[in-house]
């Protein structure tokens, strides 16, 4: 028989997760602070619990998908976690995940932390490529590997419970850097006679062509890593920054998304000659 799943938190993500398990034939007990959000799932076969504690008591595997770490503490405060397998898919910091793992272990639970690399429409759609980083109890991960693979792919990031959150936040941080650049690029063309849809195609192709450069950064950061032949030297790039800032000014666009990165490039050139630029840029951020 398929493992029953308890799910606490029926926001956009929790609802998508519950739906995926129900569709795969798992029985599901759900709870949400605002009970009405469970109505649609109840109609699809989920059992609803009157309290979080009752939902936890209903089965061995408890999945939590709430807004933040504070809400996890509130919701689980009165639940008996002894002997439970707790999978926390609430986005949090690595430090919060480690503290939450110790907190759960003190209450007799096994604990796995998760960072979801997907948006709700990708849940239960394997071909969409979404997956979840998991870290913490390897025993729990192995025991429930198939259940966890129902809503999205799985990637075990290690026994340190903070590791999933660290990977999650690192990937999302890079995404925000990319969105910053995209926002600036569209602002530059906003008042001009440029078709945004056509421009989007050019932009997506350009970013795709640049993406493999992340492997070059990794090669430099690796043991004995060497900088590659400098086809685009840092000195050349720093010399070019006024072109970008002047263009922004001419287009009436605030340079606020560009200047922090340019500042780091300039600092790197001034302070760290003779080292590979990407490595020194990364190391400069470490202080
Ligand atoms: P929503 O804002 O849609 O839902 C938030 C949920 O948390 C609701 O169930 C809400 O209950 C509950 N909640 C908030 N505060 C409390 C509290 N103090 N006590 C009890 N319950 C509380 O968020 P999502 O479902 O989108 O996100 C949930 C988690 O999934 C987040 O950590 C998010 O970072 C993560 N995630 C979301 C993604 C997305 O694209 N949506 C992508 C990847 C990760 P109520 O209905 O009563 O308000």
UniProtKB/TrEMBL annotation:
NADPH-dependent reductive aminase-like C-terminal domain sequence ranges: 160-285
InterPro entries: 6PGD_dom2 (IPR013328), 6PGDH_NADP-bd (IPR006115), HIBADH-related_NP60_sf (IPR051265), NAD(P)-bd_dom_sf (IPR036291), RedAm-like_C (IPR048666)
Domain 6-phosphogluconate dehydrogenase NADP-binding: 5-151
Record's protein name: NAD(P)-binding domain-containing protein
Organism whose genome encodes this protein: Streptomyces synnematoformans
């Amino acid at each position: 028989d398929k493992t029953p799943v308890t799910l606490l938190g029926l926001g956009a993500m929790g609802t998508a997760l519950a739906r995926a398990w129900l569709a795969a034939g798992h029985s599901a007990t759900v709870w949400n602070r605002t009970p009405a959000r469970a109505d649609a799932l109840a109609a699809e076969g989920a059992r609803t619990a009157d309290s979080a504690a009752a939902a936890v008591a209903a089965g061995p595997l408890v999945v939590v998908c709430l807004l933040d770490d504070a809400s996890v503490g509130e919701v689980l405060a009165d639940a008996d976690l002894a002997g439970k397998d707790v999978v926390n898919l609430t986005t949090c910091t690595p430090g919060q995940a480690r503290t939450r793992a110790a907190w759960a272990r003190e209450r007799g639970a096994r604990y796995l932390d998760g960072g979801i690399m997907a948006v709700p429409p990708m849940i239960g759609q394997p071909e969409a490529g979404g997956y979840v980083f998991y870290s913490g109890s390897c025993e729990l991960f192995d025991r429930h590997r198939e259940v966890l693979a129902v809503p999205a792919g799985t990637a075990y990031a290690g026994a340190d419970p903070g590791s999933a959150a660290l990977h999650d936040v690192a990937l999302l941080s890079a995404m925000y850097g990319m969105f910053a650049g995209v926002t600036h690029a569209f602002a530059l063309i906003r008042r001009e006679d440029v078709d945004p849809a056509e421009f989007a195609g050019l932009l997506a192709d350009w970013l795709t062509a640049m993406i493999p450069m992340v492997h070059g950064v990794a090669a430099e950061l690796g043991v004995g890593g060497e900088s590659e032949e400098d086809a685009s030297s840092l000195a050349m790039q720093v010399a070019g920054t006024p072109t970008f800032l002047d263009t922004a000014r001419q287009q009436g666009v605030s340079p606020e998304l560009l200047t922090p990165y340019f500042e780091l490039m300039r600092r790197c050139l001034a302070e760290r000659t003779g080292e590979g630029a990407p490595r020194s840029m990364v190391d400069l951020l470490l202080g």
